[in-house]
Amino acid sequence: MEKPTIDDMAVFCKRKGFVYPSAEIYGGVAGFYDFGHLGVELKNNIKNEWWNSFVRQRDDVVGIDGSIITSPKVWKASGHVEGFTDVLLDCKKCGMRYRGDHLIEDRLKIDTAGMSMDEISKVVKKHNIKCPKCSSHLEEPKKFNLMFSANIGPIVTDSSLSYLRPETAQLIFTNFRLVQENARMKLPFGIAQIGKAFRNEISPRDFLFRMREFEQMELEYFVHPDKTDDCSYIDEIKDCEMNVYTEEMQKNSKKMQKFSVKELLEKKIIKSKWHAYWLALMHKWFVGLGAKPDNFRLRQHMKEELSHYASETWDMEYNFPFGWKELQGLANRTDFDLKRHMEHSKTDLSLFDEEAKKKIIPHVICEPSQGVERAFLVFMFDAYNFDKERGNVVLKLHPKLAPVKAAVFPLVSNKPELVNKAKEIHNELKKEFTCQLDLSGSIGRRYARADEIGIIACITVDFETLQDNSVTIRSRDTTEQIRVRISELKETIKRMMEGKELKGLGKIVG
Ligand code: GAP
Questions:
Q1: What is the dihedral of CA 303, 307, 309, 313, to 10 degrees?
Q2: Taking CB atoms and a 6 Å cutoff, what residues make up the pocket around ligand 1?
Q3: Test site for ligand 1: of 46, 167, 168, 330, most ligand atoms within 8 A of the Cβ
Q4: Which residue has the CA at smallest separation from atom 17 of ligand 1?
Q5: 305-325 residue pLDDT tens
Q6: How do residues 150-196 score in pLDDT, each as one tens digit?
Q7: Of 36, 30, 23, nearest to 376 (Cα)?
């Protein structure tokens, strides 16, 4: 299998211990997945890299961790109770329920971005679209709210009704003033959060792509309303090039085009420097962690597709095996959310501009909103290589993401002196890296197993080790080996993790 489909990827992830259908022994539940011993490591590495890049290493961003169930008033103010809906098509005869835009996409192979309920109804009638399961007529479309409801407290009443959060963003807005005051943040600044989000998707599908429980990594970047273009970091990314698919290109069925950030701003394709900055930075983050730039494009939302809160949105899309799809949304949310929470909570969330001597409501010039599991898929697809010569998959994950960094093997498992030495080395290495000890199967089989889960360095303990305290290290990417002293092992693996070639770290052997 050279290029895996999404189903192949699901099978691979299950077989290797990355991801399992949730509660599979009871038949599973659509849209819910559990992460296995390798999946949890990869997922944590992705989240840590994101947090390090966009929170810890920046002076202008701080983080929060909000609650999953919160006052339902939050969701009324944000517009989710009223408007967070998809269009549902019911089949009265067999009871199947379909998401309107997905059914049309599947049947007619057309783009349904931004299609309203009325338009969906017209298309279904015009093309006589029937229930795919029993071929009966479908009911008139209905709006279906995607929020999962929950009851707070022991007595179920109208006032105990709440919701599981459908996005992490709102807790950032409700905490805005507290965070700004306590962290003493000055505009422009950002507040970030990583955490669970829940959506009762009508048709969860494509493995981790559309789930009912997932995680988001979100950042709200607040700027002064009169300074929405004053981005002092723009020079850092102005030469960054990205595939771009504008509204005009989509309307006129043109192909995407490559532009630098500088060109995007000069041609006014992207309106604000801040928005362009965050788009480029997020793109750079993926590429810096080994994703392939040709698989990415920035797609501008069509006017009719914009969310109720956004004035301009760009999706970073990825070329999934099932087509170009949203990987991350980057919306300009203006002052919509702070204003709505001010109105509904009767709390002042404005800031005082000392220079202009007036109150201002900051604008969210860009909200990069990334699903952790979609990022997980991207890194898996771009790392997945079937090596014909080796006859196995080599998962070339970036060293910072690889779930296991090193493996230690005794050359043969029936010699206690080799096994004991291997255990000793493993015990030492695991203090610093995620490290496996593999005692079973031929050495070739053990290398193949390590390649398949992306282990960067395989260390073999052989008879020479017992003579001179040296071991071989084999590189996942090249299969080259060098011999190093055990005392130099940690340092050598660290260099490999930094991307140094093995031949620069010792003499190639074997
Ligand atoms: N706060 C804005 C927001 O939530 P969104 O476009 O609805 O915007 C942002 O979601 C990101 O969350 C998406 O780009 C995607 O990466 C992830 N996401 C959304 N729904 C998802 C789902 N059902 N399953 C997995 N990831 C999802």
A1: -60
A2: 167, 169, 199, 201, 210-211, 214, 216, 218, 326-329, 367, 369-371, 373-374
A3: 167
A4: 371
A5: 998 889 999 999 999 999 999
A6: 999 988 887 889 999 999 999 999 999 999 999 999 999 999 999 99
A7: 36
